[in-house]
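Why does residue order matter? Because the sequence determines the fold. Keep that principle in mind as you read this record.
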Amino acid sequence: MKIPLPIPLISSAIYYVYKVWCKTLRFEEVGREKLDEQWDNGTPMVTCLWHDELFPLMHVRRQLQIIAVVSQSSDGELLAQVLEKLGLLTSRGSSSRGGVKALLRVARTMKNSHYLGCITVDGPRGPRHQAKEGAVFLAHRSKAKLVPIRIGMSKSYSFQKAWDKFQIPLPFSKVKIIFGEPYSLEEGDLDDVYLEKERLRLENKLKELL
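Structure:
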């Protein structure tokens, strides 16, 4: 998608609209205490969610320090600037460009500082609701637990022509954020068989949450 206006100008506008928009929403968090307990204990974690459910999540960040993987596309640049205005760090890369380097930067940040990794596991281009291997690679590399997250919206607008059918909750609707149980990867070498097994395990946990 070509963006006709300067990205910094658009990102600033989106940031302010986002802050106002989220204040109209009614949030319910389920299982958040499990994540907060692990965070307070200093446990490395990688939160995992579907790309189309991303919109409301950052409003409930609170004390969490987050570094997110964002694609290197122009859309990704816009998202990265918005996320950084919201107080997140970003690492740019995707499955098609710079993905391993981006994940390694996240792993180093998680190792050197108390940061939580965040990945939309079917992004940046799908297939929709099919987990890729990046979150497993990152968790293995950083010895972190994976935290599946699902977000349900009582009323939303869905971009049907987008690959992920991205959802935006309508003003004054209810948003339910379900935090799954943080879990550890099985012991093993990071080969293709291991990656596929753990990728599928994560995908099933996400589908079972909502």
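The chain has one domain: 29-162+175-209.
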